[in-house]
From TrEMBL:
Membrane topology: Multi-pass membrane protein
Keyword rRNA-binding appears in the UniProt entry: no
Subcellular location: Membrane
Chain segments annotated as transmembrane: 131-153, 236-252, 278-294
Domain of life: Bacteria
Keywords attached to this entry: Membrane, Transmembrane, Transmembrane helix, Transport
Protein name, entry field: Cation diffusion facilitator family transporter
Location of the N-acetyltransferase domain: 1-124
UniProt xrefs under Pfam families: Acetyltransf_7, Cation_efflux, ZT_dimer
PANTHER family associated with the record: MITOCHONDRIAL METAL TRANSPORTER 1-RELATED (PTHR43840:SF15)
Organism (species): Candidatus Cetobacterium colombiensis
Similarity remark: Belongs to the cation diffusion facilitator (CDF) transporter (TC 2.A.4) family.
Organism lineage: Bacteria, Fusobacteriati, Fusobacteriota, Fusobacteriia, Fusobacteriales
C-alpha cells in the first residue's frame, strides 16, 4: 500500500519513523510518501517542493526489505501518480546513483540527478488526444453533410464517401481509447507498460476499414448489375466532395505530424486513412462530373473504386502494425546501437542485439563479451554504465537487458 502524508499528518508518527531511520528528515513543508504493509512501514521518501521542482531529500527502505524493488516501486508511484509538473531532483551524489539512473534520472552538469519535467510524459497523450478529438469532430461534420447531400443529390459515390467518413468516426474513437490506455504507467501485472494497446487498436481499425469497404463495394456491385434506371447526380454534390478533400488534406497533415513526433502507430495508420480519403473524395468529384456529362454509371463505378481503396488501405494498416506486434527488427536501429557501443566504449564484441517495440518505446537485449578473468563487480559496472548511456542518448529506449559473455582465447 502506498500512502502520502503532509508533515502535519506525519507528526503523530514521528516516533515510528525515527525508530525506522534515525536520519529521518523533518521539513515542515515536506511531502512524505510511504510503502506500507498493513501497519508496518516498509520504507519512505521525503520530498521538498521549491517553486516548480521537487527535491528528493531522502529515500529509505528497511534493511530486510531491500533488494525486493520496494524503492523502485515507491519512486515510480511518486513520479507517475503524485508529481504533475516540474522536475524531480537529487542535489548531490548518493550511493544509489546507479539505481536512480535505471529509473530514468539523468546526470546534470552540476552532478545532480534529475528527471526533467515529469509532466513531459503527458504531452504525447495530450497532443494525440487533441488531434483525434479534432478528427472525430470534422468526420462527424463530413459524414452528416455527405450522406445527406449524397441522398438528396442522388450521388451514390458521395453517399459511399459519407459512410467512409462515418467509419472514420468509429476508428478515431478507438484510437482515442488507445491513447488513454497506452499511457497508463507500468504496474506489477504489466511491467513493460501498456503501450502495445496502440497496435491492438490499429489492427481493429484496419479490420473495420475492410468491413466498411466490403459493404460499400457489395452495394455498388449489386446496383451496377441490377439493371435499375440510374439517376444523374446533382451538381451540388461536387462541391461537398471538394470540401471533403480539402478538410481531409489538413486532417492528414496534422495526424501524420503528431503520429510521427509521438511514434503512435495507430495515429499514423489513421493519417494514412485520411490521405486515402483525399483521393477518394477527388475520385468522387470526377465520378459525379462524368455521371452528369457522360453516363450515370460512372457514379456507381467510382463508389466501387472508393471501396477498393478503403480495402487496400485496411490491409496495409494491418500488415504494418503486425510487424510491430511480431517484433520485426529495425535493422538500421540495431546497427546504430552497435556503432554507438563500438564508437564510445572499449567493448570489442557486441552480438545478438534484439529489439522489440511497444508504442513509442523500444526494449533492447544484447550480448557483450568481457575478459574471462574480469571480476563480476567490474563487468557489472561496465554493463550498468552502458545501459545508462544508451538510455541517455536514445530517449526512445525504455529498457536495456545486457548479457555478459566471456572472451574465449
Amino acid at each position: 500500500m502506498y500512502k502520502s502524508y503532509s508533515f502535519d499528518e506525519i507528526k503523530d508518527k514521528l516516533d515510528i519513523f525515527k525508530k525506522l531511520d534515525d536520519e529521518f528528515p523533518i521539513f515542515e513543508d515536506g511531502l512524505y510518501f510511504t510503502i506500507e504493509k498493513k501497519d508496518d512501514v516498509i520504507g519512505y521518501a521525503c520530498l521538498e517542493k521549491k517553486e516548480e521542482n521537487y527535491y528528493l531529500k531522502r529515500i529509505f527502505i528497511k534493511k530486510d526489505s531491500r533488494f525486493k524493488s520496494h524503492g523502485k516501486k515507491l519512486l515510480a508511484f511518486i513520479i507517475n501518480k503524485k508529481i504533475k509538473k516540474g522536475s524531480l531532483i537529487i542535489e548531490k551524489d548518493t550511493p544509489i546513483d546507479g539505481f536512480l539512473v535505471k529509473l530514468g534520472f539523468k546526470k546534470m552538469e552540476n552532478g545532480s540527478l534529475s528527471i526533467e519535467d515529469v509532466e513531459h510524459k503527458e504531452q504525447r497523450k495530450k497532443e494525440g488526444q487533441k488531434t483525434v478529438i479534432s478528427s472525430i469532430f470534422w468526420n462527424i461534420i463530413l459524414a452528416a453533410t455527405k450522406i445527406s447531400f449524397g441522398y438528396i443529390g442522388k450521388s451514390r459515390a458521395l453517399l459511399a464517401d459519407g459512410f467512409n467518413s462515418l467509419s472514420d468516426v468509429a476508428t478515431s474513437s478507438g484510437i482515442l481509447l488507445g491513447i488513454h490506455f497506452s499511457n497508463i504507467p507500468e504496474d506489477e501485472d504489466h511491467p513493460f507498460g501498456h503501450e502495445k494497446i496502440e497496435s491492438v487498436i490499429g489492427v481493429i481499425m484496419g479490420i473495420f476499414m475492410i468491413l466498411t469497404s466490403f459493404e460499400l463495394g457489395k452495394g455498388g456491385l449489386e446496383l451496377l448489375f441490377s439493371g435499375e434506371k440510374r439517376e444523374i447526380p446533382e451538381m451540388i454534390t461536387v462541391y461537398f466532395a471538394l470540401f471533403s478533400s480539402v478538410v481531409k488534406y489538413f486532417m492528414y497533415k496534422q495526424k501524420i505530424r503528431v503520429g510521427i513526433e509521438t511514434e503512435n502507430s495507430a495515429l499514423i495508420a489513421d493519417a494514412k486513412d485520411s490521405r486515402n480519403d483525399i483521393f477518394a473524395s477527388l475520385s468522387v468529384v470526377l465520378g459525379i462530373i462524368f455521371s452528369i456529362y457522360v453516363n450515370p454509371i460512372f457514379d456507381i463505378i467510382i463508389s466501387i473504386l472508393v471501396s477498393v481503396l478503403i480495402f487496400k488501405e485496411g490491409v496495409s494498416v494491418i500488415l504494418d502494425i503486425t510487424d510491430t506486434i511480431l517484433d520485426k527488427q529495425d535493422v538500421e536501429f540495431v546497427h546504430e546501437i552497435k556503432r554507438y557501443i563500438y564508437d564510445n566504449t572499449d567493448i570489442k564484441n557486441v552480438h545478438d542485439v534484439m529489439m522489440r517495440k511497444s508504442g513509442d518505446k523500444v526494449f533492447l537485449e544484447l550480448h557483450i563479451r568481457v575478459p574471462k578473468d574480469m571480476t563480476v563487480y567490474v563487468a557489472h559496472k561496465i554493463s550498468d554504465d552502458l545501459e545508462s548511456s544508451i538510455k541517455q542518448d536514445f530517449p526512445s529506449v525504455k529498457n536495456v537487458i545486457i548479457h555478459l559473455d566471456c572472451i574465449i582465447d
